[in-house]
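Async update (no meeting this week)

Hi team, since we skipped the sync, here's where things stand on the single-chain job. The sequence we agreed to prioritize is pasted below, unchanged from the tracker. I ran it this morning and attached the output directly underneath so nobody has to dig for it. Comments welcome in thread, and please keep replies under the output.
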Amino acid sequence: MCLAVPGKIISINSNNSEFRTAKVSFGGAVKEINIQWLPEAKTGNYILAHVGTALSIVDEEEAEEVLKTFEEFEDMQKDLD
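Output:
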């Protein structure tokens, strides 16, 4: 099973036209993500990423709902520890 995680594009590196990447925030953790498959992606978009690659652009409301659910799981795990 694969898990794609939503994140918000905070900047795009367009220095290399053959390999576009972006800095993407995943609930505060910032990672460099390949956005080559999403030529329409722009700063401020939410994307689904898996293994360092953006798979699709997603609705902001949907992305924030998923991130909130992840936070709730994390809080539940802390309570169990």
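Quick observations from my side:
The CA atoms of residues 4 and 49 lie 5 Å apart.
The two ends are 26 Å apart (CA to CA).
Reply here if anything looks off.
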